[in-house]
Amino acid sequence: QKKQQQQQEQQQLEQQLRQQQQRQRQAELHQQQEQLRQQQLQQQQHQEQLRRQQQLQQQEQQEQLRQQQLQQQQEQLRQQQLQQQQQQLRQQQLQQQKQQQEQLRQQQLQQQQQQQEQ
């Protein structure tokens, strides 16, 4: 009977040990899962940061494009104004030439008349 008691005690001890080991394994598993969860969270945060950075970059690029377009438009306007000024100058010169020619013609006419009168 002593032997049986010893065996039973031994079995109980072994069973306790096994249960302890199992509890430990479960605790370790739980820890691993928690770590994984944390890592996933970090990754999500990282991706969110990246997305925000990309958005910012896109906005900056759009702004730069807008600025460039504005500059181009201003340059075109400047060119147009220059052309208009040049055209106006040419017209003025032409008019002046016409007036001078007319004056010359008048002078010549007057001279001819004077000569005829003489």
Which helices and strands appear, and what pairs or packs with what?
Blueprint: H1 2-117
Short description:
The protein contains 1 helix and no strands. It has 118 residues and is mainly alpha-helical.
Structure in words:
By secondary structure, this protein is mainly alpha-helical. The protein is built from one helix and no strands.
Characteristic terms for this protein:
about 120 residues, mainly alpha, about 0% strand, 1 helix
Give the strand tally: 0
The gross shape turns out to be rod-shaped
The averaged pLDDT comes out at 95
Largest sheet: none
Q: Could you tell me the strand content as a percent range?
A: under 5%
Helix content class:
over 70%
Structural class: mainly alpha
Q: What is the helix tally?
A: 1
Low-confidence stretches: none
Tell me the series of helices and strands, N- to C-terminal: H
The CA-CA distance between the termini, in Å, is 174 Å
Give the radius of gyration.
Answer: 51 Å
Coiled coil: 3-118
Keywords: Coiled coil
